[in-house]
Amino acid sequence: MADTTTKSYYWKGFRDGAPFIFVAIPFGALFGVFATEAGLNIVQTIAFSATVFAGAAQFAALQLLQDNAPTVIILASALAVNLRVAMYSASLTPYLGAAPLWQRACAAYLIVDQSYACSIVRFEKEPKMTVPQRMTYFFGTVSLITPLWMLTTYLGAVLGTQIPESWALDFALPITFLSMVGPMMRTLAHVVAALVAIIVALLTVAVPFNLGLLIAGAAGMIAGAQAELLLERRKP
Questions:
Q1: Is residue 175 domain-resident?
Q2: Per the UniProt entry, what are the Gene Ontology biological process annotations, in alphabetical order (predicted)?
Q3: Residue 53 φ/ψ region, left for φ over 0, alpha for ψ in the -120 to 50 degree band, beta for the rest
Q4: Which runs of consecutive H residues, i.e. helices, occur in 126-207?
Q5: By the 8 A CB rule, do 162 and 37 touch?
Q6: How confident is the model over 85-123, as pLDDT tens digits?
């Protein structure tokens, strides 16, 4: 019975993660197109997606490569964009930390915005899930996204500039984050963090190499943390 229940959580994760394919498909294709336009060949493009497996960081690095930014700036920007994954990992550790090392290693590679968003919501809703059930659910959420990301990256790299601009594939990036951030805005601290980050990003838009986004991200995290502390102090 336990095995059946565990398998059912895989399919729950599969179903919860499935809607994100409508974003992953154009997002991956767009990266493939951008990568070839930036001068990468097909092998380099696929290797980029397979090793980094982090769309936002990949786009940030490509943009800076096209701007001929210094290597240090490119690496620092990609790392900063991906720092949120470290926070995702810390957030998931109480739920997945007791899993075998090889499973945690695979999960670390597969932590993306979609798998985190689905998993943390499910784990909080069902705190009595066992560790195998949680891990199975987590892997279910990325069962479609992972192969589709690689496949569409390849197709984008092969098709390249043959994809018409009228398709507007670049809508995928903002839509992805809006679809994930919206449901996660559950407290005043979350709202404060988002608003401060937006305002600072607009004020620092002229900072070279898109470093204004890093400043905005840091400002948002600080503001959110301070708001959370103030709210905790006001509690009776």
A1: no
A2: L-valine transmembrane transport
A3: left
A4: 131-141, 145-159, 172-184, 188-203
A5: no
A6: 888 898 899 999 999 999 999 999 999 888 998 999 999
Domain annotation covers residue 178: no
Count of CB atoms within 10 A of residue 113's CB? 20
Q: Which amino acid is at 78?
A: A
Whether 176 is covered by a domain: the verdict is no
* Domain count of the fold of the chain: 2
What 8-state DSSP symbol labels residue 112? Answer: -
Task: State the burial class of residue 172 (Cβ atoms within 10 Å of its Cβ: 0-12, 13-18, 19+).
Answer: buried
Last residue of a domain, one of 123, 143, 169: 169
Question: Where does the chain show beta strands of DSSP type E?
Answer: none
Domain boundaries, position 224: 185-236
Q: What's CA 200's distance to the chain center, in Å?
A: 21
**Is the same domain home to 111 and 205?**
no
**CA 192 → CA 86, 116, 189, 224, 235, distances in Å?**
21, 21, 5, 6, 18
pTM: 0.71
